[in-house]
């Protein structure tokens, strides 16, 4: 079983991954944030480092998927390879922060990788409003995220909605996280687990 959590910056992916990993006793695979050599540079100079950052994430995510499939274990993954390719990289390209040459190179590499990997059995998309994202980003206080603009988050949200609307690779569960506090409120976490159980039971 491979379950992946998708969502914008600050939507609660990592937190929910940890909670679900504990509940289901699934192995958790997290996004490489702390060990990412490009993040600081990217947020300070997006145009210069956008291609490098996206290639790092693509490499990292592809390696994760291979490890997940080889392990034979039940895995929950924080963020999917699809978000890089259909949301973050196209957004940087549209904003003029990634050149046509780099974007086409990136797309071709992703398309090659996509042919060689299986999608998760279930993708959980955490839908969040921009004010909620901003609040969560401020609360966690990562220094390199201080420069993230509301416009950038809004653009990403639009792309997430379009991607989720057209996603057909596997089952997709959409959860509106604005009214939820799945850390402080066990009932909120319980309601998410009930929805996941219904989806998982439908897989077999």
Task: Describe, in plain words, how this protein is organized in 3D.
It is a single chain. By secondary structure, this protein is α/β, with parallel strands linked by helices. It has helices at residues 13-24, 39-44, 46-71, 81-94, 100-114, 130-140, 150-166, 186-201, and strands at 2-7, 27-29, 75-78, 122-127, 171-176. The protein has one domain: P-loop containing nucleotide triphosphate hydrolases (Rossmann fold), CATH 3.40.50.300. The protein has a five-stranded parallel sheet with strand order 2-3-1-4-5, with helices on both faces. It is globular. The termini are close together. The model has no long low-confidence stretch (mean pLDDT 91).
Topology:
Blueprint: E1 2-7, H1 13-24, E2 27-29, H2 39-44, H3 46-71, E3 75-78, H4 81-94, H5 100-114, E4 122-127, H6 130-140, H7 150-166, E5 171-176, H8 186-201
Parallel strand pairs: 1-3, 1-4, 2-3, 4-5
Helix pairs in contact: 3-4, 3-5, 4-5, 4-7
Give the CATH class. Answer: Alpha Beta
> What share of the residues does DSSP label as strand, in percent?
5-15%
Question: By helix and strand content, what is the structural category?
Answer: alpha/beta
CATH architecture: 3-Layer(aba) Sandwich
Number of strands: 5
What is the CATH topology classification name? Rossmann fold
**What is the averaged pLDDT score?**
91
Compute the number of structural domains: 1
Shape: globular
Biggest β-sheet: strands ordered side by side in the sheet: 2-3-1-4-5
Portion in helices: 55-70%
Largest sheet: 5 strands, parallel
């Amino acid at each position: 079983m491979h379950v992946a959590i998708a969502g914008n910056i600050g939507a609660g992916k990592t937190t929910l991954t940890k909670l679900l990993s504990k509940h289901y006793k699934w192995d958790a695979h997290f996004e490489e944030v702390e060990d990412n050599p490009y993040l600081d540079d990217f947020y300070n100079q997006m145009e210069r480092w956008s291609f490098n950052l996206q290639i790092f994430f693509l490499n990292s995510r592809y390696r994760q998927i291979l490890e997940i499939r080889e392990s034979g274990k039940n895995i929950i993954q924080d963020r999917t390879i699809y978000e890089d390719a259909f949301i973050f990289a196209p957004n940087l390209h549209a904003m003029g922060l990634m050149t046509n040459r780099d974007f086409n190179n990136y797309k071709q590499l992703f398309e090659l990788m996509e042919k060689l990997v299986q999608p998760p059995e279930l993708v959980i998309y955490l839908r969040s409003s921009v004010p909620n994202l901003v609040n969560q980003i401020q609360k966690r206080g990562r220094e390199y995220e201080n420069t993230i603009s509301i416009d950038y988050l809004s653009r990403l949200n639009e792309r997430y909605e379009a991607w989720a609307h057209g996603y057909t690779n596997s089952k997709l569960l959409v959860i509106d996280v604005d009214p939820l506090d799945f850390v402080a409120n066990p009932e909120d976490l319980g309601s998410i687990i009930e929805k996941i159980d219904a989806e998982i039971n439908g897989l077999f």
